[in-house]
Design goal:
The chain has 111 residues and is α+β, with helices and mostly antiparallel strands. The chain is 41% helix and 24% strand. It has two domains: 35 residues, no CATH class; 56 residues. A three-stranded antiparallel β-sheet has the order 1-2-3, with no helix packed on it.
């Protein structure tokens, strides 16, 4: 009675494909025959122009991150100005200041 068949599976992982081969081993674990082999080829992951399919998502994500960082910087700066007394703490008072014409304030400052 024969023992169980001994074999080894070999894989070749590429960027756009996976190759595989199943090889029979003899009693001394040396390869003696190829049982089966094949390859699985994947699509390129790019559109016909050669641009990555993820480029649009990456661009939108970077724009969101840039906007979020800007808003955080503004909020941190406002918080520091209020903490050090350079700006009003009350939100309604700050909104009221936005309505004042800056050129009128400059003219008052000269006098």
């Amino acid at each position: 009675m024969r023992g169980k068949m001994r074999y080894r599976l070999g894989l070749d992982l590429g960027t756009k494909s996976i190759g595989w081969a199943m090889i029979r081993l003899d009693a001394s674990d040396a390869p003696c025959a190829v049982i089966r082999a094949g390859v699985r080829i994947f699509s390129d992951g790019r559109n016909p122009k050669g641009v990555s399919l993820a480029a649009d998502r990456r661009l939108a994500r970077s724009m969101r991150r840039r906007r979020d960082r800007l808003l955080k910087r503004k909020a941190r700066m406002m918080r520091m100005l209020v903490d050090y007394g350079f700006f009003l703490g009350d939100t309604n008072e700050r909104k009221r200041l936005e309505q004042i014409n800056p050129y009128e304030l400059r003219a008052k400052g000269l006098d």
